[in-house]
Amino acid sequence: MKYALIGCGRVAKHHIWAARNNNIEIVALCDIDYDKAVAFAKTHSIENVNIYKDYKELINNEDVDFVSIATVSGTHGEIALYCAQNKVNFIVEKPLAMSMTEADAVIAAAEKSGVVAGTCHQNRFNIAVQELKAALDNNRFGKISHGSINVRWCRTKAYYDSDDWRGKWLSDGGTLMNQCVHGIDLLRWLMGDEVVSVYGQVRNSQHPYIEAEDIGVAVLTFRDGSVATVEGTVNMVEDLEQTLSVFGEDGMARLGGLNASSVDVWRFKDEEAADKDRREIEEKAANVYGNGHTSLFMDFVNAINEKRPPYVDLYAGRRAIEIILAIYKSQKTGQVVKLPLTDFGTKDMI
Ligand SMILES: NC(=O)c1ccc[n+]([C@@H]2O[C@H](COP(=O)([O-])OP(=O)(O)OC[C@H]3O[C@@H](n4cnc5c(N)ncnc54)[C@H](O)[C@@H]3O)[C@@H](O)[C@H]2O)c1
User: The domain at 125-286+320-338 falls in which architecture?
Assistant: First the structure.
C-alpha cells in the first residue's frame, strides 16, 4: 500500500507510526509549511519521499492507495472534498468538518466517487471501549437508563499560543470540537446513535484569549427515551480524566483513565467468567491520543482490500459534529435543538 500524509504537525507522528506498524509505504508528505515537512521527514527518518507544499499537487501527482489528512481542523472539509472528488481514499482527522453543510458535501462526494473514506475517531479501538460495545450489542445492560461523558483536561495559554488556529471559531472551535469530540463520538455510538434532541450551554471561563468555549455541558435525549450528559472542558489544572459511563437495568460500566482506556466499574446481573478480567483492563498509552491510530489504519487498509466502508466511516465523523454543533446552536438560541441538524456551522457562532 502506498500512502501520503497531509499535515506534518503535532498529531502527524501518530499517523506515521500507524503506517509503519502496518507496513504501509510512505511515499509523500505535504505541509503548507514546506520546511516543516522536510524537517518532519528528517526527524522521523522518512526516506525517498516526495514533499509537497500544496495538497492538490500531491493528489494530482502521486499514485497513492490512500492519504490521511492531519491538518488544521478548519481545512479538513476542503481537503477531504478534494480527495473524494479526485477518487483518492482518505482518513480525515477529527473533526470531519466545521459545518453540517461541509460534512454533507464530503459524504456526498465520497459516495459519488466510491472512495473508501473514514474519520479518525481512533478511541473506538480502545480495548475497554470494544468490550463495552460488545456488552451493549449483547444486550447485557437491558433497558438503558442513561450515560455520560466527562472530558476534563488541561490546556494552558501556552498551548493556545503555540498555533494561531487554536480556539478560533473558523479553524478549530472550542473544547467540545477539539478535545471532547472523541468522547461525544463514543457516547453517541455506544448508546445507539439515535439522538433526537440536544440542550447545551457553553462558556469561556478561563481562557479569555480564545474565541470559543473552554467548558461545554449538554443533555442529549435518545429516541428510546434514554438520556445522556456531556461535560467537556480544558479548565483543569492538569489532565484529569476522560470518563464514559453507561447505566442500564441489568448493568453498569464506567471507563476512565485519560481517554476512556481503562475499566473503572464493570458490574452486570449476569456476571460472566470473563468479567473478572474485564475489570482489570488498563490500556497503557503514552498520551491522551491513545493507541488507536494503528488499529484504525489497519482496519482502513483492510477496508480498501475488501472494498467495504471502514469501521469508523464518515458518518461517524458527521454524527459527532452534529451533537457539538447542536450544543453550539442551543447556546446561541437558548432552545432545545431537534436533530437532524442540517445547516449549522462554527461560523454561526462568530
Ligand atoms: N485523533 C486525535 O487524537 C488527534 C490528536 C491531536 C490532533 N488531532 C487533530 O489533528 C489535526 C492537527 O492537529 P495538530 O495538533 O497536529 O496541529 P498542528 O498545528 O501541530 O499541525 C497541523 C499542520 O497542518 C499544516 N497545514 C495547515 N493547513 C494546511 C494545508 N492546507 N495543507 C497542508 N498542510 C496544512 C500546518 O502547517 C501544520 O503543520 C487537528 O484537526 C486536530 O483536531 C487529532
Answer: 2-Layer Sandwich (3.30)
Nearest atom (ligand 1) to Cα of 163? 19
Top mutation candidate among 29, 67, 68, 72 for ligand 1, by most atoms within 8 Å of CB: 72
Q: What is the pLDDT of residues 239-269, one digit of tens each?
A: 999 999 999 999 999 999 999 999 999 999 9
Residue 154 has pLDDT above 80, yes or no: yes
What is the 208 CA–ligand 1 centroid distance (Å)? 23
Phi and psi, residue 84, nearest 5°: -60, -45
Q: Specify the ligand 1 atom closest to the Cα of 289.
A: 3
pLDDT tens digits along 192-204: 999 999 999 999 9
Confirm whether 2-123+293-312 and 125-286+320-338 share one CATH topology: no
**How does pLDDT run across 271-325, given as a tens digit for each residue?**
999 999 999 999 887 666 778 999 999 999 999 999 999 999 999 999 999 999 9
Q: Select from 3.40.1260.20, 3.40.1620.10, 3.40.50.300, 3.40.50.720 the CATH code of 2-123+293-312.
A: 3.40.50.720
Q: What is the pLDDT of residue 256?
A: 96
List all residues whose CB is within 6 A of at least one atom of ligand 1.
6-12, 30-33, 36, 55, 70-73, 75, 93-94, 120, 122, 163, 178, 289
The pick from 8, 11, 43, 170 for probing ligand 1's pocket by mutation, whose C-beta has the most ligand atoms within 8 angstroms, reads 11
For ligand 1, the distance from its centroid to the CA atom of residue 321, given in whole angstroms, is 17
Answer whether 198's CB lies under 8 Å from 158's CB: no
CA 239 to chain centre: 18
CA of 302 to the centre of ligand 1 (A): 25
Percentage of the chain modeled with pLDDT above 90: 97
